[in-house]
Specification:
By secondary structure, the protein is an alpha/beta fold. The chain is built from three helices and four strands; from the N terminus they run βαβαββα. The chain has a single domain, classed as Response regulator (Rossmann fold, 3-Layer(aba) Sandwich), CATH 3.40.50.2300. It has a four-stranded parallel β-sheet with strand order 2-1-3-4, covered by helices on one side. The radius of gyration is 14 Å and the shape is globular.
């Protein structure tokens, strides 16, 4: 099962979702993230706050959605980036209306991480239910 989290810069929301998904369900599905206009960096506040929760972004990098054009995506999760999100082919497209935390103070940023974590847990449960024997 291939799950791609997409936002504009692939520096914050989608990176957080990918990292949390890999921690919550490390070997069951393949999780990726990408951006329509990748920044080339991962947001330092995202790195700091996730590190404090034992979630590490060291194996991740900011990627362009073009890297996933020829990959069969089962679930494309759009992170609230409106019309700037990519038009990739996917079995299911799901829109999460999540504000971009890149300029938020730490408490608000943590709220966004918590929101993403809740949505990731629900998504994994949904995928499990849809694909159980």
């Amino acid at each position: 099962m291939e799950v791609l989290f997409a936002c504009v810069e692939n520096s914050c929301r989608s990176q957080i979702a990918e990292a949390l998904a890999k921690k919550i369900s490390p070997h069951k599905f393949d999780f990726y993230s990408a951006g329509s206009k990748p920044s080339g960096i991962i947001n330092p506040m995202a790195i700091k706050l996730l590190n404090s929760q034992g979630v590490y972004l060291t194996d991740q990098r900011s990627k362009d959605v073009s890297e996933f054009i020829n990959i069969k995506i089962d679930y494309l999760i759009l992170m609230g980036c409106g019309d700037e999100c990519p038009n990739l082919v996917a079995e299911k497209r799901i829109e999460w209306d999540i504000p971009d935390p890149k300029n938020m103070e730490e408490p608000e940023f943590l709220n966004v991480i918590e929101n993403i974590e809740g949505k990731v847990k629900k998504l994994i449960k949904t995928i499990d239910n849809e694909h159980s024997l």
